[in-house]
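Review form for a predicted model. The reviewer records the input and the model, then writes brief findings.
Reviewer: anonymous (R2)
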Amino acid sequence: MFAQVQSPANSTEYIHHHLTHLMLNLHNFTISDGGFWTLNLDTLLVAFVLGFFFLFFFTKAAKKATSGVPGKLQNFVEIMVDFANGQAKETFHEESTFLGPLALTIFIWVFLMNFMDIIPVDLFPLGAQYLGVEHMRVVATADLNLTFGLSISVLFITFAYGLKCRGFLTYWKGYLVEPFGPALFFMNIVLRVVEEFARPVSLSLRLFGNLYAGELIFILIALLPWWTQWPLGFIWSVFHLLIVVLQAFIFMMLTIVYISLSSGSH
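Model under review:
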C-alpha cells in the first residue's frame, strides 16, 4: 500500500532501498550487499513468522473445537478446511488424506505472504531503521528465491506422490512410452523432462511477477504528491487485493492439478 513517511532525496535511491533485501553472507555470517552464498533474511523471517501465525491460530481452533455453537475462529477455520478439501476432491477425484491439508496450507500461507503487499510500503522499513536495520522487505512472495523454493517443493511432492500411486516401474515407464509410444522413447523423455521442469518455473514466475509488480506500483505511488497517494493507493489496494487472493488460489489449484496428473488419476 502507500503512506510514504518522508520525501526521498532521490527517487531512484528510494526505489532501490525498498527493493533491497536484508542479506546474510554465509561465508562469514555478516550482513552483505549480495552475492551467491547469501540468504535474504527478511524473506525467511516474514515467511516463518506468517507460517507460525497460521499454525498457531489453526491449532488453537482445533483444540477448542466444539460440536455446539462454534466461535468465530472455529467458523473461519471450518470454512477454510471445507474449501480446501472441496477443491482437492473436485480436482483429484479420489480419496486422499494428504491433498486437503496440503491445499489448505498452500492457500493460507501464500495468501498471508501476498497480503503483506497491502501494508504501507514505508511502515516496516522505517521500523527496521529505528532498530538499526537498513533494509527490510516484507512481501516474501515478491522474492524469486522463495517462489522458486515453493515450486521446487511442489515438484518433489509431485514426484513422490506419483511414485506412491503408480509404483516405481510404472511411473518411470511413463517417461519412455508417453505420449508418442515406445518407438519414440527419446522424444518422450525430452518432452516429459521439459514438461516436468516447466511447471515449477511457470508456477514460481507467475506468483513472483504479480506480487513484485504490485509492490513496485505501491512504491511508485508513494513517490507521488501526498494528496494523490490516498485515492490512487486505495484504488490500487482494492484491485491488488483480488490479485493477492487469486494468486494464492492459483498456486493451490495448480499444485493439486500437477499431483493429480503425476498420480495418473486423470
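Findings: Residues 11-263 form one domain.
Further findings: The CA atoms of residues 125 and 136 lie 5 Å apart.
Recommendation: see findings above.
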